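Ticket #4471: structure output looks truncated?

Reporter: J.K.
Steps to reproduce: submitted the chain below (333 residues) through the standard prediction queue, then opened the result file.
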Amino acid sequence: MPIDLLSDVLRVLRLRGVLYFHVGGTRAWAAEAPPSRAIAAAVLPGSQHVIEFHAVTAGACWAAVVGGEPVRLQAGDVVLFPHGDAHVVSSEPGMRAAPHTEGYFKRQGQPLPFALHLDAHEVCFAPSSPRPAETTLVCGFLGCDLRPFNPVIASLPRLMHLRAGADQGWVVQCMRQAAAEALSPRPGGSAMLERLSEMLFIDAVRCYLQTLPEDSTGWLAGLRDRHVGRALALMHAEPAQPWSVDELGRRVGLSRSALHERFAQLIGETPMHYLARWRMQLGAALLRDSNATVLAIAQEVGYESEASFSRAFKRQLGLPPTLWRRQGEHPPA
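Returned output as attached by the reporter:
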């Protein structure tokens, strides 16, 4: 494959991570989080979407999307909730607790790292590591863009369980270091915490990709397909090219109809529709991150005129490019 498609997409989606707290649980305990949209403004202001994750550094526990089947977590395991669902982490399956609202993550109006100790129904906050506990976790958040187009999140399950293994030892060590850094800040700590969160998420996606069943569908399944993956790579490598399904099929070794059918079956949309949405994602990123004119951006992503780009942009995002840029932040999803 000529380009690393997963990296290409993740760069444009503005991953932004941070770890906020260290949790210790003793006896019967449970912690429940509301949908991430309810706490996004407190933990990662400016992010369109927030993913919460938990790494078990000692002991064992259970995790579940509220109303879903629980999974057992052991030391070294990581669980992620890519779609931001309300979820529970507890000492035993089936337990519930009062959801923690946005104010739970703020101290004197500012989001801060903190330690949390759960002992039966007692919840204790502390400015440093919790007292000894049977189970300890490091909990964090990762922000990203959903609009205009996020094919990675759409391909992920509601709960991702990354099991400890011989090649995952770095995760626990990094999470322990991250918890220590969050609780005792030093210069450069914020940047380090962001990078660690991003690394954990990317590794989780790679592991999930490796374990996808053969009959899976979605963007990640298309990524590993010989023909569809090659078509995706071509469009990502040269998004401004005047691609057609005929030309893509010729380049990947399939007929027009065969590529159209295979692409739609795996990705859930036609190649040309995918290309149009990816061009809008690139255009939105350039509007956000550069001072280039709208015409220059239009030409860079494959449109001959500013007018044609503006029409397509407004059709997909509801705002013309100039207003999107002027607002300084994306409209709500």
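Triage note (M.O.): checked the attachment and the full token line is present. The two ends are 32 Å apart (CA to CA).
Status: closed, working as intended.
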